[in-house]
Fold this sequence. Notes:
4 helices; 0% strand; 71% helix; mainly alpha; globular; 69 residues
Amino acid sequence: MTANPILLQKKYARIIERFSKKKNLSFDEALKFFYCSALYPLLREGVSDLHCMSDEYLTEELIFEYEET
C-alpha cells in the first residue's frame, strides 16, 4: 500500500519531534538520525504497511534503534 506523500511527510515530522523530545536531542540531530535510520526506508517504501502504525509505536522503534547504535 502506498501512502499519500504529503501525509507521510507529516508523519515523519511528528515522529522526529517526539523522538527529539524523548531523547533530549535538537530537532536537527533527531532529523539527521531519522533520515539515516533503518526505519526511514521501510516507511518510505511502505514495507508491511509500517506507515499505518501509530506515531508512538514508530517513535519507540526509532528510540530502540538509536539506543542500539
